[in-house]
Fold these 4 entries.
Entry 1:
Amino acid sequence: MHFVREACCVYLRKPSTVHLDWQCLLALYRGLDVLALCLVWLFVPGTERQIATMEEMNYVFGVSTRQHVEYQVKEVGPWCIDHYIRRRRGVDLEPLYRWARGRESAGGDATAD
């Protein structure tokens, strides 16, 4: 990871020594934005519905990162492709979180207390 950070610092701080024009810098920023989008999609749990209590928030952020990433890659990714690209509207997404009061969010396998 140090290598990536140092390479970005060299390109961004001293463009005159590396001879990058504005199009190359724009492409670099675009690539970093796409990388950031992918990392946020993988690692940040979504709260698409309004969470009413601190217990619910604790439950959402209490799910392990590994379980969340596996869910995003194995369930949400294929569902997005089927739903938005292939236009298969009948495919339902299995939620990651199951709420005790019957409310559900896109997300887990356990029941909140």
Note: The first strand starts at residue 97 and ends at 98.
Entry 2:
Amino acid sequence: MVSEEHRHLYVSRRIVQGILRISRAFAADAKALDELRKPKFTSKYLINHVSEKLIPAVKEWEKQYQPPVIHLGRVLSVGDGIARIYGLKSVQVGWV
């Protein structure tokens, strides 16, 4: 028959083993979380990417972009808050 003291030692040993197993799993999870928190790209990489790829792409788009022209007309004269305009059919009189 196993004495009461031996039984307590066995139970205590099992508890310690369980705690060690949990702490190892927690450490592995913490390491995985640290890896997730690390930035995917360095600032040097991002600066190079923007200067080498994005800026030229935007400049190329600017060259090809044609803004829509809805109304086209001419300002004939401006003075004393009055503007004489020709060619804009939808212009209305109003206070500025």
Note: The mean pLDDT is 76.
Entry 3:
Amino acid sequence: MDKIPKPSAIIEKQWKVIDKLKSAMFKQNTVNSKLQAQLAKHRWIPVEEGLPEERQDTVPYRSKQVFVTDGQSARSAFWKTRRMEWVYWGDGFGVITHWKPIILSERE
């Protein structure tokens, strides 16, 4: 005849499983938070929400290079803060609706 475990032993095993699940959920939430931060950094920003800031290092009255889109295609450009205009190379580009910073991968 099989030995029937005591109720306290069953409850103890259940608590261990619950603790492991809590730990796994905490780790997943940490990963999710890091991913959300990365997504926020790389999102397309509507021009109505804001424009790139002026460079403070070398070139006055313009932003750093950014990606811009007209909803059909994308290219790199910069924002001229004094003239209030986008500067990019090439023709056939529509009205710029969104932009995002160019973020290079981090190297260790």
Note: The chain has one helix and five strands.
Entry 4:
Amino acid sequence: MHSTGNSFTFSTKSNFQNLFPSGSFACVCKATYKGKPAAVKVIDLEKTSDDYRLKFLPRELYTIKKLKHRFLIQVIDIYVIGNRVLGLCTLF
């Protein structure tokens, strides 16, 4: 998958690798952002509850975009593609 304008790519099915074990509705995958290693949290909205989508997800996305600290990952952008939410983060 490629985004436009941000030089963002993440693994397709042929070389798809999760960085961590998948949860019940999300996984974290390897990505590249401007040629550097990054991570993408992929949330499958079809597997989430209405309560999560309407109450908790908006709060989580707002909060992680606002966090700025040198010892935390940095959220670059958040994309919605079909029924999935992709959170692009730089690694340390």
Note: The two ends are 23 Å apart (CA to CA).
